[in-house]
Amino acid sequence: MIKITEKNSIKNGQSKQFEINKKKIVIFNINETYYALDSLCVHQDRSLVHGKVTNNIIECPSHSWHYDIKTGKLLDYLKDIKLSTYDVKNTKNGIYIDV
Ligand code: FES
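A: This is the predicted complex of the input protein with FE2/S2 (inorganic) cluster.
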């Protein structure tokens, strides 16, 4: 796992995008559970960082395609499309991601 930011630097309800190994990855803090997945929507490569999350579903802010925040699975239009997801840990030393 690699450290990507300081502990508590992503507040509850917030999200942040990072570039790790040339990949854009977004981390969401939903009620102190952290989720990380590829940040670029498969529709037109826009970032999901400002996507609204409701019941563990992210809505792309550009044209409202939806993804399961836990699995990265696209929920509309195309079958068997999935963004990569990554394990995240918030420790006393910082937030770590398994990439
Ligand atoms: S870029 Fe995400 S829905 Fe169009």
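The domain at 2-97 is CATH 2.102.10.10 (Rieske Iron-sulfur Protein). The CA atoms of residues 17 and 82 lie 18 Å apart.
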